[in-house]
Amino acid sequence: MSEQTRPMIGDGVDVPAVQRRTVGVLAGAQTVGSMGLTIGISTASLLALQISGSESQAGLTQTFQVIGTAVASYLLAPLMARHGRRVGLTGAYAVGGLGSLTLVLSGILDSMLVLMVGSLLLGAISSAGYAARYAATDLAEDSRRARALALVVWATTVGAVAGPNLTGPAVAAARAVGLPELTGPFALGSLGGFAAAAVLWIMLRPDPLILAQQRAGLRDQASSRPSGLSWRKVADVLRTRPRVSAAIAVVSLAHAVMVGVMVMTPLHMAHGGAQLRIIGIVISVHILGMFAFSPIVGWAADAWGRVPVMLTGGVMLVASLAMAGASPEGTSWQIFSGLFLLGLGWSCATVSGSVVIADLVPVESRTDVQGAADSLMALTAAAAAAVSGIVVDRAGYPALNLLAGVFALSILVIAPLARRR
Questions:
Q1: Buried b / exposed e across 36-75, counting CB within 10 Å, b at 16+?
Q2: 2 band by pLDDT with thresholds 50, 70 and 90
Q3: N or C: which end of the chain has fewer CB within 10 A?
Q4: In terms of C-beta distances under 8 Å and separation of at least 24 residues, what long-range contacts does 327-334 make, across chains too?
Q5: pLDDT (tens digit per residue) in 374-404
Q6: Any bridge partners for residue 8, and if so which?
Q7: Is 8 helix (H, G, I), strand (E, B) or coil?
Q8: CB under 8 Å to 292, separation ≥6 — which residues?
Q9: Region of residue 206 (left: phi > 0; alpha: psi -120 to 50; beta: else)
Q10: Cβ density class 189-218: b for 16+ within 10 Å, e for less
């Protein structure tokens, strides 16, 4: 594209150049910020079990974390609409870092109450990650929107895979300084959250959402809007664009299935005598499936269409649950394969569904609908995490996978409703 034909806004701002810089900065923040979240995944339920002595309460860490994600997504929507992505994303990562430190304190005090508060705050990192994927699409061209979103999702791979594998060294470091050993991963993870906040605050300039609002002539309206998420705008979009409703349902169901099974897998393995290091590797393999192949998923969504990729994700989720449900306690090829496929199916459904939302929601309603979608996704996952502990305690891990399979199959029914007409 020549200099004469490159899209410009404002005082000669080069939009493609800003888009490239935006995706790069968001990817960098995701790389370090994701470590702040995933490093504790393989130990969160174990820490809760150690403090409470109850398997039914072990899933509460993930429940409160996703509730925190829902609350943070609700609060981020109006904040970003008024002040841009930079302010919202920076604040969310900083709150998540504080949550990690609070989880360390819960282990020191042996307090479930403090653990729940820390889990709630830690959920802000997930909310930041969800919002970051949408931020990558604010200035993207229609034909490359899925790839831009998927690239930011892919950046999570480095921190997400490295995080659980740092569990062993973090546990050893905590033991060496006299902290409860299961708090070590959270102490290390807090550094990732604060580092991501610093990267975004310093480097996410100019702000992509503010530029998008300026291009649409809506910046004055956005900067003066009242605080709070506009449910009227959300309702208007869902009523007039039913494809958005279908996409939100697919993303929410896929996330609930993934979280419900993933959070109980460490306990299933621990019952069979699996070492913490092996549990961390399984979670790393799962997270690799979630993020590492997202550029291919994004390319497929741009090239072949959003709905075929959603359906592929649904099939993968069903297959993954069959494998995981058949796995014996401890370490097995079924648990490795099942958790990897669980992550990959989640990636297909989430990336393609999120792009449908980014495709169809107008700028003036963008943060409201995206925030509502992320809140619903988190709340369904919170319910799944809460129920998963009870199901495993009373009926076992295979029963949990069977129940999750019912919801995975529903994705195959709902996804075609998001097809372009």
A1: bbbbbbbbbbbbbbebbeebebbbbbbbbbbbbbbbbbbb
A2: very low
A3: C
A4: 327/268, 327/397, 328/272, 329/268, 329/269, 329/271, 329/272, 329/273, 329/397, 330/269, 330/271, 330/272, 330/273, 330/274, 331/269, 331/272, 331/274, 331/278, 331/282
A5: 989 988 988 898 899 889 988 999 999 999 9
A6: 14
A7: strand
A8: 154, 157, 161
A9: beta
A10: bbbbbbbbbebbbeebebbbbbbbbbbeeb
Distance CA 46, CA 41 (A): 9
Determine the length of the chain.
Answer: 421
For residue 197, how far is the Cα from the chain centroid? Answer: 16
DSSP single-letter state for residue 26: H
Strand residues in 130-182 grouped as ranges (E): none
The amino acid at residue 354 is: S
Cis peptide leading into 206, omega within 30 of 0? yes
- How distant is the alpha carbon of residue 113 from its chain centre? 24
159 burial (CB, 10 Å; 0-12 / 13-18 / 19+) is buried
Tens of pLDDT, residue by residue over 239-268, are 999 999 999 999 999 999 999 999 899 889
* pLDDT bucket at 40, cuts 50 / 70 / 90: low
Q: Tell me the C-alpha distance between 30 and 124, whole Å.
A: 13
| CB neighbour class for 420 (10 Å; exposed up to 12, middle 13-18, buried from 19) | exposed
Cα 75 to Cα 97, 237, 244, 418, distances in angstroms: 17, 19, 21, 27
Q: What is the DSSP string of 82-102?
A: HH-HHHHHHHHHHHHHHHHHH
Supply angle C-alpha 204, 378, 71, rounded to 5.
65
Range with the poorest average pLDDT among 68-77, 161-170, 325-334? 161-170
| The two structure tokens encoding residue 421 | 């007409």
* Contact between 134 and 162 (Cβ < 8 Å): no
CA 316/CA 254 separation, integer angstroms: 11
* pLDDT over 70 at 7, yes or no: no
The continuous run of DSSP H or E covering 264 comes out as: none
Q: Which of 51-65, 306-320, 356-370 has the lowest mean pLDDT?
A: 51-65
**Which of 26-30, 46-50, 217-221 is modeled with the greatest confidence?**
26-30
- The CB-side HSE value for 371 (13 A sphere, CA atoms) comes to 26
Cα distance between residue 118 and residue 159, in whole Å: 20
